[in-house]
Automatic annotation (TrEMBL):
Organism field: Pterulicium gracile
Protein name per its UniProtKB record: ATP-dependent 6-phosphofructokinase
The organism's taxonomic lineage, starting at the top: Eukaryota, Fungi, Dikarya, Basidiomycota, Agaricomycotina
Main location: cytoplasm
Cofactor(s) demanded: Mg(2+)
Residues the entry annotates as binding Mg(2+): D158
Length: 810
């Protein structure tokens, strides 16, 4: 198969990672790989002009009776130019100027090296009016057939994917027309009877239905949150109000997620518009309540497509005028504009497009004339294939519903996370003083951090505190884990106290690894003394261990007969059953930042291998996903360990790889090693070994990322998920507290399912009881018995073609 990939519509971070993954996966699966520059415009223009100037035959495919054998060998597909894409036609675009180079270009393995770290799209993107016409699509078909291409991957927004589907459904008539016009012969027509197409959604708005996340949306959210964090400090200093306009014409995803991650006071999104008659009063009232509590800054986020319930546009300027005139707030407007599109892709926008690119190639290989065109999507962290046109139709239905003022329908067409996050935003931002909950159903909730700090712990705590206050409960912060509890280091938390916690790294409550098992009786006495009605523990494996101890302790200590919930929070992501822990995304981003800098240094020396040591306990998640996100060529994990045979192969692989680098173009390479992978083959050992064995081909250095991976500002994903998981956990505690109240006789008894961990499994949020967790835990190695990401390690090796290079003879 000959696969071509193009990027179309507005650019987004992660598009380059898609191109790289499709090219590499294609080559690995025995396909020839091509890129189309400048989106559909490049497809329409093709290589005709170039070929005319360079005297190439007028129709290559028609003159070849047999399709050329695909080159399954990577060595035959290593590179087809010296950076052909950037050199040919640089500076030209699709606005009518003549382009110099070819638009449809064959690419090889090394041509796309390092692309995952680049923002925008290196193959160019455009909006093509010509492709919207049948004439344009006829030219596009001819150009593809000329190069013998029979499969197309399109990465773009809903418009681009619609174009892809139109092209595919029209294909039989297009090739008929080409044949009738004598442009292609009979055998070429037969050979190209079917065009395989698959779509990937590249869009910063996250506006596509039937997928949780579009490629580029997480990076755009990073850019917005960086801006909000910066604005927050100046707003606080001057007690100002800021109205921040973010992108999103029909989709409020960026606005909503930045509002929840940035701790905004008020939000305008198209799907849930405020009442046309009363929104000004409601906004002022809400902000006034915050100010009355002593809040010094006000932050309002507005999507560019915001409007009221009568569809009258609401602009940032409108909001500013109301805040200035009616509340006398010193108000400024910041429109973030194109800064949201730019910059280096975050970890998620490297990992997700890579996984999706591999899936796209599989989908193409499995496609038949009968299968629909697929769109590759994602559900939580599971890659999915959905019917492309169904996704586009559902997406369009949202805009239509908004246009018809059917906002309930618009909301229902968004994924459940959208609605939950919106509920989360209201629950954690709006002050409500009139809770009607009866006294006996009001809980005193202990909130505690256990284990090492992880990004999102504070955001989860903030959301839990605000949930409590809205719902008539009393949130009690326990400082310094079980050690602090023993010292009565507990404090009633207020709405304002936790205000800035969402964006803070580390643990505001203080955390440590102390286990309650050290003196369970004393812990029980403290639970009794403080009359805790429920417990929320935020932490990793230590927190799970603690939950297990407390739950088992219920038999002996009545004060543990209360509902207990754990939110997994650990950079190691080693809590059993759950595919995701708070902090792991922040950690991956810290790792990616560090590795990009290290790789730059390694590349500057042309031939340096850096051995990067990561934390992660006895769980290789961070090392493996970090390797995928940073393009490392080798990864060592505790699950697999390190042995001499493996090291020998790795040295051979590196020697072959450096040997094959283009002259003067050797690059730095990364090796990632989890610090618990082996007691013998340490980072120092491996570094020295590579230095010795590399000879004149490469040298080696090491870098230990250590605790830098824990800290830093939490990523928007960790912040937003923290709120969602925290509110669900509070609802869980509330539900079980009510059930226990209903069921209680004289003695309070907590059923087993009232001690549980909130997990993400197979793309869904599920509660796992402590007993279920134990059944899936490898207690000795402090990790789950299975890990969903095991296959990713193979992918890391495939992405550098390790098996092929290792297999090469010396
Ligand atoms: P963004 O989300 O950034 O707007 P998009 O992919 O939706 O991205 P569009 O401008 O709608 O951006 O579409 C990109 C290109 O896809 C168009 O310029 C056009 O070439 C092609 N296209 C869109 N809709 C169609 C269609 N119905 N038929 C053929 N081609 C189309």
């Amino acid at each position: 198969m000959k696969i071509a990939i193009l990027t179309s519509g507005g650019d987004s971070a992660g598009m380059n990672a898609v191109v790289r993954a499709v090219v590499k996966a294609g080559i690995l699966k025995g396909c020839e790989t091509w890129v189309v520059r400048e989106g559909y415009e490049g497809l329409v223009k093709g290589n005709k002009e170039y070929n005319r100037q360079h005297g190439a035959p007028s129709f290559r495919a028609a003159t070849t009776t047999e399709r050329p054998d695909p080159s399954t060998n990577i060595l035959n597909n290593l590179r087809f130019g010296d950076g052909p894409l950037l050199k040919e036609g640089t500076g030209d675009d699709a606005t009518g100027r003549t382009l110099r180079g070819r638009y449809i270009v064959r690419v090889g393995w090394d041509d796309v090296r390092g692309w995952f770290a680049e923002g925008g799209t290196l193959v160019g993107s455009a909006r093509s009016q010509t492709f919207r016409t049948e004439e344009g699509r006829l030219a596009a078909a001819e150009n593809l057939i000329y190069e013998g291409i029979d499969a197309l991957v399109v990465c773009g927004g809903d418009g681009s994917l619609t174009g892809a589907d139109v092209f595919r459904s029209e294909w039989p008539s297009l090739i008929n027309k080409l044949h009738e016009a004598g442009q292609i012969d009979e055998s070429t027509m037969k050979r190209h009877a079917h065009l395989r197409i698959v779509g990937l959604v590249g869009s910063i708005d996250n506006d596509m239905s039937l997928t949780d996340m579009t490629i580029g949306a997480p990076t755009a959210l990073h850019r917005i949150c960086e801006a909000i964090d910066n604005i927050n400090t100046t707003a606080l200093s001057h007690s100002r109000a800021f109205v921040i306009e973010v992108m999103g014409r029909h989709c409020g995803w960026l606005a909503l997620f930045s509002a929840i991650s940035g701790g905004a006071d008020f939000l305008f999104i198209p799907e849930k518009p405020p009442n046309a008659a009363t929104w000004q009063d409601e906004m002022c009232e809400s902000i006034n309540r915050h100010r009355e509590l002593g809040k010094r800054k006000t932050l309002v986020i507005i999507a560019e497509g915001a409007h009221d319930s009568s569809l009258n546009p609401i602009t940032a300027e409108d909001v500013k005028n109301i805040l200035s005139d009616r509340m006398a707030l010193d108000t400024r407007v910041t429109t973030l504009g194109h800064t949201q599109r730019g910059g280096r892709p975050c970890a998620l926008d490297r990992i997700m497009p890579t996984l999706q690119g591999f899936e796209a190639v599989d989908a193409l290989l499995e496609s038949t004339p009968e299968t629909p065109s697929y769109m590759i999507g994602i559900s939580e962290n599971k890659i999915t294939r959905v019917d492309l046109m169904e996704a586009v139709a559902t997406t369009r239905a949202v805009a239509e519903a908004i246009g018809n003022k059917d906002f309930a329908k618009a909301m229902s067409l968004r994924d459940p996370e959208f609605q939950e996050t919106l509920d989360g935003f209201f629950a954690s931002s709006a002050v409500v003083n009139d809770c009607k909950r009866p006294e006996h159903l009001r809980m005193k909730v202990a909130i505690m951090h256990v284990g090492a700090p992880a990004g999102g712990m504070n955001a989860a705590t903030r959301a839990a505190v605000r949930y409590c206050l809205r719902n008539g409960h009393t949130p009690v912060g326990v400082h310094n884990g079980f050690r602090g509890l023993a010292d009565d280091d507990v404090e009633y938390l207020t709405w304002l106290m936790v205000d800035g916690w969402g964006a803070r790294g580390g643990s505001e409550l203080g955390t440590n690894r102390d286990s309650p098992a050290v003196d369970l009786g004393a812990v029980a006495a403290k639970f009794q003394q403080h009359s805790f009605d429920a417990l929320l523990v935020i932490g990793g494996f230590d927190a799970f261990d603690a939950l297990l101890t407390l739950k088992d302790g219920r038999k002996v200590y009545p004060s543990f007969n209360i509902p207990m919930a754990q939110i997994p929070a650990t950079i190691s992501n080693n809590v059993p059953l759950t595919e995701y822990s708070l902090g792991s995304d922040t950690c991956l981003n810290a790792l990616v930042d560090a590795c990009d800098a290290i790789k730059q240094s390694a590349s500057a020396s042309r031939n340096r291998v850096f051995v990067v040591e990561t934390q992660g306990g006895r769980c290789g998640y961070i090392a493996t996903m970090g390797a995928l996100a940073s393009g490392a060529c080798l990864v060592y994990t505790p699950e697999e360990g390190i042995n001499l045979d493996g090291l020998r192969q790795d040295v051979k692989f590196l020697k072959n790889r450096y040997h094959l680098d283009a002259k003067g173009k050797s690059e730095g390479r990364l090796v990632i090693r989890n610090d618990r992978s082996s007691n013998i083959y340490t980072t120092e050992f491996i570094t020295s070994m590579l230095k010795e064995e590399g000879g004149t081909l490469f040298d080696s250095r090491s870098a230990n990322l250590g605790h830098t991976l824990q800290g830093g500002i939490p990523s928007p994903t960790d912040r937003a998920r923290a709120v969602r998981l925290s509110l669900k956990s509070m609802a869980f505690l509330e539900r079980h507290f009510e059930n226990m109240h209903k069921a209680s006789g004289k003695t309070r008894h907590a059923p087993d399912d009232s001690a549980a961990v909130i997990t993400i499994q197979g793309g869904q949020i599920k509660w796992a009881t402590v007993d279920e967790m134990v059944a899936h835990a490898d207690m000795k190695n402090r990790r789950g018995t299975t890990s969903w990401w095991t296959g990713v390690k193979t992918m890391v090796e495939q992405l550098v073609a390790k098996p092929e290079f290792t297999a090469m003879s010396d």
